[in-house]
C-alpha cells in the first residue's frame, strides 16, 4: 500500500507544486497512489506493469507479473488489431535504462527549481546523477535520508530523518491535507448456460475471474461463499481456491437470486462483502459500458465518507449468444487508508539535530563555517 509520503506527493501534484516524479522502485506504488503516468518516470520498471512492444499500450495489473528482464509474458495485447505478446517492464542487472523514461527524467531535472531526493541512497548510476542536473540551471537539491549519501555535499538542504515525518511537516506548513488512499480492484462474473437434452433444465456454469484474463490470478480474494435467497432448495457452496467456479442444473423457467460472499485476504481493509446476483437464464443481446470514471469516483467518495471498504458497482456488461454467456465486470473497494500527521513529533524537535542548512555566497553555495564553541555530540541518525 502507498505510504503517507506517496499520498502527500499526490496532493502536491494536484496543487501544482510537484511537477514530476522519478522512481527507482519497482513496486508501482506511485502509479497506484494516483500520480499521473505522464508525470512519472519508473527508471527500473514496474512489477505490476506489462507493455506491448508493438503498439506501446501499457497494462497495470493487480498481481505481480511473473517475469523480469523485459521478457515475454503469457498474455497478449487486447487490441484486436495488434495481439502481440506482452513483455514485463522490470530491468535485469544487465539491462540499460529505458531511454523514454530517462529522457523525461533528465529534462525535468534540468528545469526544476527544486529536486527532492526522498529516501534514496543516491548510489546507483546513472540515476544518482540526475539531481545534479538541476544545479546547472540554478535549481536546488534537498536530500532526506537516514544515512549519508555521496551527494550530500551538493545539497542545499540535508535532513537525516524519516521521510514520512519530514513530508508531514511540509504538508502542515503548506496547509495541505494528505488524502486517504482508496484501493479499487476489479473482477468479472461469467455465466455460461446450455439447455439439457430434455429441454426442461439449464446446465449453467458460474465463474469468477480476473479482468486481466481468465487464467490471471485474483490475489485479493481468499474464498467465495455462495447461497440462494428465498429458500430455493439449492445447495450452498464454498469456493476455496482458483479457479472460482460453480456448476449447477436448474429448471429453465425458474429465476432466483444468488448471494455471493467474497472473503478477502488479510491485508484488505475489511474481511468480506456480499453481492446479490439475479439469475433468470435469459441472455440479452444488449451490451453496455457505463461511465467508469464516474462510478469509480462515486465509490471512492462513499468509501471515504463511510471510512470502510466493500462498496461495489457494475461497470460493464457483455453478452454472447453462442454459447449463451453473460459477462459482468464489477469494481470493488478493497482498502481505505487514512494517514495521520505526526506534527507532534516534529514540534518536539525530533528533526532539529539532523538538519544541515547551506547558505548562499557570492560565488554560489557553501557550507556555513560558523560553529558553536560548545562541543556537540554527533547526531545519532
From TrEMBL:
Highest taxon of the lineage: Eukaryota
EC number per UniProt: 2.3.1.286
A single GO molecular function term of this UniProt record: metal ion binding
GO BP terms: negative regulation of transcription by RNA polymerase II
Region annotated Disordered, chain positions: 350-381
Residues that bind Zn(2+): 52, 55, 77, 82
Catalytic center residues: 44 (proton acceptor)
Broad class of where this protein is predominantly found: nucleus
Record keywords, A-Z: Metal-binding, NAD, Nucleus, Transferase, Zinc
Domain Deacetylase sirtuin-type: residue ranges: 1-177
Cofactor(s) the record lists: Zn(2+)
Subcellular location as annotated: Nucleus
Segments of skewed composition (Basic residues): 370-381
Pfam families: SIR2 (PF02146)
Compositional bias segments (type: Polar residues): 350-366
GO CC terms in record: nucleus
PANTHER family, sorted: NAD-DEPENDENT PROTEIN DEACYLASE SIRTUIN-5, MITOCHONDRIAL-RELATED, NAD-DEPENDENT PROTEIN DEACYLASE SIRTUIN-6
Similarity section: Belongs to the sirtuin family. Class IV subfamily.
Protein name: protein acetyllysine N-acetyltransferase
Protein species of origin: Prunus avium (Cherry)
Amino acid at each position: 500500500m502507498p505510504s503517507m509520503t506517496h499520498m502527500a506527493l499526490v496532493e502536491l501534484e494536484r496543487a501544482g507544486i510537484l511537477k514530476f516524479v522519478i522512481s527507482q522502485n519497482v513496486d508501482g506504488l506511485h502509479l497506484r497512489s494516483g500520480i499521473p503516468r505522464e508525470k512519472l518516470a519508473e527508471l527500473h520498471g514496474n512489477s505490476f506493469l506489462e507493455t506491448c512492444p508493438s503498439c506501446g499500450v501499457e497494462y497495470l495489473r493487480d498481481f505481480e507479473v511473473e517475469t523480469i528482464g523485459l521478457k515475454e509474458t503469457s498474455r497478449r495485447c487486447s487490441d484486436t488489431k495488434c495481439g502481440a505478446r506482452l513483455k514485463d517492464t522490470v530491468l535485469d542487472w544487465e539491462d540499460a535504462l529505458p531511454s523514454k523514461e530517462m529522457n523525461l527524467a533528465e529534462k525535468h531535472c534540468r528545469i526544476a527549481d527544486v529536486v527532492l531526493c526522498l529516501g534514496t541512497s543516491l548510489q546507483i548510476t546513472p540515476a544518482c546523477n540526475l539531481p545534479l542536473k538541476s544545479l546547472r540551471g540554478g535549481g536546488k537539491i534537498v536530500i532526506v535520508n537516514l544515512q549519508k549519501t555521496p551527494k550530500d555535499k551538493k545539497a542545499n538542504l540535508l535532513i537525516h530523518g524519516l521521510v514520512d515525518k519530514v513530508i508531514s511537516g511540509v504538508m502542515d506548513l503548506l496547509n495541505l491535507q494528505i488524502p486517504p488512499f482508496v484501493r479499487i480492484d476489479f473482477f468479472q462474473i461469467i455465466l455460461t448456460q446450455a439447455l439439457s437434452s430434455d429441454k426442461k433444465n439449464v446446465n449453467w456454469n458460474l465463474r469468477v475471474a480476473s479482468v486481466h484474463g481468465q487464467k490471471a490470478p485474483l490475489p485479493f480474494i481468499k474464498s467465495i461463499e455462495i447461497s440462494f435467497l428465498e429458500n430455493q432448495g439449492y445447495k450452498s457452496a464454498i469456493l476455496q481456491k482458483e479457479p472460482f467456479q460453480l456448476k449447477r442444473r436448474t429448471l429453465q423457467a425458474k429465476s432466483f437470486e444468488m448471494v455471493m460472499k467474497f472473503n478477502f485476504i488479510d491485508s484488505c481493509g475489511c474481511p468480506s462483502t456480499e453481492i446479490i446476483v439475479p439469475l433468470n437464464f435469459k441472455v440479452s443481446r444488449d451490451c453496455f459500458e457505463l461511465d467508469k470514471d464516474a462510478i469509480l469516483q462515486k465509490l471512492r467518495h462513499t468509501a471515504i465518507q463511510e471510512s470502510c471498504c466493500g462498496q461495489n458497482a457494475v461497470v460493464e456488461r457483455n453478452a454472447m449468444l453462442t454459447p449463451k454467456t453473460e459477462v459482468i465486470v464489477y469494481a470493488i473497494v478493497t482498502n481505505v487508508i487514512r494517514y495521520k500527521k505526526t506534527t507532534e513529533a516534529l514540534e518536539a524537535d525530533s528533526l532539529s539535530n539532523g538538519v544541515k542548512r547551506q547558505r548562499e555566497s557570492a560565488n554560489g553555495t557553501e557550507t556555513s563555517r560558523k560553529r558553536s564553541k560548545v562541543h556537540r555530540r554527533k547526531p545519532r541518525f
